Automatic annotation (TrEMBL):
Keywords: Lipoprotein, Signal
One Pfam family of this chain: LpoB
Signal peptide (UniProt feature, chain positions): 1-22
Annotated protein name in UniProt: Penicillin-binding protein activator LpoB
InterPro entries, per the entry: LpoB
NCBIfam families in the cross-refs: lp
Keyword hit for Lipoprotein: yes
Amino acid sequence: MKKSFLILASAFALLLSGCATQPSVGNTSAGSSGDMSTMQLSGDDFELAAETMINSLLSDPAFANAPAGVRKVVAIGRVKNDTALRIDTEKLTAKITRAMRQSGKFVLTTAVAAGGALDSMSKDVRELRDDDEFNQKTIAKKGTMVAPDFSLSGKIRQDNIQVDGKTRVEYFFLLRLTDLNSGLAYWEDEKEIKKLGSSKSVSW
């Protein structure tokens, strides 16, 4: 009987040890949740940051009560990657500008952007003027392009902090919307995502 009890106790201990979970990378505060499986920025982190920014922008008093049907033209300014990671910042801005357009209050220009036009065809087709192979009545006329009212710009920053033998990585998503006529920032916000894990998993 005693032998059977020892065998049963050993089996139960093995079962518990097999079910134990290993500590994983995660956020360090309830207000800065993100993808808990990696120290680097993931697709889920971008989704979270973009959703936060979209809700903040569209609920801001400067735009929440904007009259329907009056769309402001937005150009993509510089979004600086100040991290140790290779980041496609267009992934963040595209989701935001898509939501801005769907709100009915904004429209995106692809003819003007920091670093060059997102789509050069708006100007390329104008090079067809005086080309006899094209019907000149179908060529875009001078003075028909629309200049942007606002510029969407910002920065993604990374801070690495040593905490009790581990590394805490803090990512900051900062975006602002600037009135290009006055140079005044009508909106800006920041989303912070914190992660804590082994320094071996950190990109320096």
